[in-house]
Specification:
Signal peptide: 1-19
Helix content: 10-25%
Strand content: 35-45%
Number of strands: 10
Number of helices: 1
Structural class: alpha+beta
Distance between the termini: 59 Å
Organism: Dokdonella fugitiva
Shape: elongated
Largest sheet: 4 strands, mixed
Keywords: Signal
Protein name: Carboxypeptidase family protein
């Protein structure tokens, strides 16, 4: 019984510490265009990042008819260090992005993050005949 109580106390302590840390909402938005500066409607834009050393689940959206997209997601700042208590020092430094659309080659790049709002525009090239 003591072991079960100790385990429950540890879990509750971790949850309480985690709740004290902020989970800011990050926004990445921009445009997807072709080399002629024409919008690429319905392009799929995805971002992922390292979260405590592990790949996050991707956040995905689709560009509108004008090629505009907007992604919103939360980032957990909690360090998960039990011995140090409520330490909230995790930072989102960069995200990996992937953009794809029918008849276009996939574009991938890393985007540095310096605040909670980032603008990232993409130019994607037409796919080669018989290629992707």
């Amino acid at each position: 019984m003591k072991r079960v109580f100790g385990l429950v106390a540890c879990v509750l302590f971790q949850a309480a510490a985690h709740a004290k840390c902020k989970t800011p909402i990050y926004v990445i938005e921009g445009n997807v265009r072709d080399p002629g500066n024409k919008p690429v409607p319905e392009a799929i834009v995805a971002v992922a990042w390292l979260d405590h050393g592990h790949a996050s689940a991707p956040v995905v959206t689709t560009a509108d008819s004008a090629g505009r997209y907007r992604l919103e997601f939360r980032f957990d700042m909690y360090t998960r260090r039990f011995l140090f208590g409520d330490v909230c020092k995790e930072k989102l430094a960069e995200v990996a992005t992937s953009v794809m659309a029918p008849a276009y080659a996939r574009a991938e790049r890393r985007i540095p993050i310096s605040g909670t709002e980032t603008v990232a525009d993409f130019t994607i090239e037409p796919a080669e005949a018989g290629g992707r």
